[in-house]
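On clarity, I found the account of how folds are encoded harder to follow than it need be. What matters is that the chain and its backbone geometry are given together, residue for residue. The format is easy to grasp once an entry is in front of the reader. For illustration, here is how one protein appears when written out as sequence plus structure tokens.
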Amino acid sequence: MKRTLIRVLVSFTLWIIGVAALIVFGTARPPPAAASITGPFAAINDRDLPELRRYPARDGAQLSFRLYPATGRQVAVLIHGSAGSSVDMHPLATALHRAGVTVLVPDVRGHGSNRPHGDITYVGQLDDDLADFVTNERPQFPNTVWTTIGFSSGAGFTLRVAAEAPLGRIFDQYILVSPYLKYNAPSVRQADEPAKRESLKPESAASPSWAAVSTGRIIGLSILNFFGVRLWDGLPVLTFPVPENLDAVTRTYSWRLQQNFGAHPDYLSDIRAVARPVHVYVGGADELLDAEKLRAEFQSQRGDIPVFILPGLGHADMVTRDEALRAIVANFP
């Protein structure tokens, strides 16, 4: 009996040491610069960028957003991509505003002017923040039609919202731009996957890596989560190749932020569950996504969701280049 107890204690101790080692040492180095992704955002002319405003979230935080007011009946809420901020959506917001659409662009919690960067308190907090944002702002624009436009991971998060009840019904339409669905989705190019040269920009010989993933740490935290331990979920598990001289960008994501800012793990179920009209736009030369596979993923679940592929455009081009902006604005009569 005593010998058995010792074996159990030794095994448990070794298990604890193993999990701790995964969490402490299972980290990754930052990926190399991805100029084809960050370049278009760095080139944005932000001289006429609206001043930041604040709205109250349910936990008392005052979260930031930008407003582009117009007089039409259409309102668009823009959700930026991973590591980004409301500044990244300025070209699209400006194009919509010129078309008579009122545009609201929040900084997702943990991004932009919302500090600290790269973390949230619990999985689902971003969903609550968006609900609070709409509850606070919608009365300012009565008798209007509301559309959410998400980009990249923000598009994955937008799909998540569209699939949730009752949250998904607070918007009338959803537009997903370059949607990043999941790290292992067929549409996501792997870093070591030879990219088709004819489908990518000429300067892109291979798919760039957008995030360095601390796989060991994620495994360790997932094991602890299985046993209900979430004390260390605020540790960073993703690192992005963003310029260090820009204060608005977010360089790392915690485990809980990584789980929240995107679609649900069963993203195909999200696609099936949406109850409002959805349109998808992706560049034919996207460095991170295979456009044809993305179309197949959506069409396999919902034949009524159109996926528009814009030839020659890369990932970030879809919210910065005029031809992409015109295609998206065409959704607003």
Remarks:
- Residues 47 and 90 are 10 Å apart (CA to CA).
- The chain has a mean pLDDT of 91.
- Residues 2-25 form the longest helix (24 residues).
